[in-house]
UniProtKB/TrEMBL annotation:
Record has Manganese as a keyword: no
UniProt keyword Acyltransferase present: yes
Family (UniProt): Belongs to the transferase hexapeptide repeat family.
Record's protein name: Acetyltransferase
Entry-linked Pfam families: Hexapep_2, Mac
PROSITE patterns: HEXAPEP_TRANSFERASES
Catalytic activity, EC: 2.3.1.-
Amino acid sequence: MKTEKEKMLAGEYFNPLDKELSKERLAARKLLHELNHNPPENLQQQKEITRKLLPNAHKATFIQPPFYCDYGYNIRTGKGVFFNFNCTLLDLAVIEIGEQTMFGPNVQIYTAVHPTNAEKRATHIEKGKPIHIGKNVWIGGNVTICPGVKIGDKSVIGAGSVVTKNIPANVMAAGNPCKVIKELG
């Protein structure tokens, strides 16, 4: 029989109120508190906290606090990834981000999926769908990226967009829902 964490990592419905998962979220919240309340001149401590919070992120990942996530260990980044102020990553599933990708302020990345059936939703079960964001992508401020989305290398997502479907490589896309506007040269 699978544990709730094993179900979560397999992309199956799981109970997020499970003791092990609750303990892991609490540990992440403690690190987030440290990160978000770290004196701004203490960049070395910020790097150390970031490495603990995001053990699968490249050491050259930079976060401009405040920053929020569920677990941290499901966030994988390449070299030079930058998160501006107030980004939120609900990492029930893997969020993979290629090198040199930049996020504007208030970006929301959601892997969480809840049942559409009200009775099932009332049981508080959920699951996650992984998100993949390529290399050298620029995500504008206030963008929401929905569960299961893939964004190709070198693409630009315009501010305020809601990305509900895959976006190919090397395009400018924007809107709600986010759509390709033009190819980039």
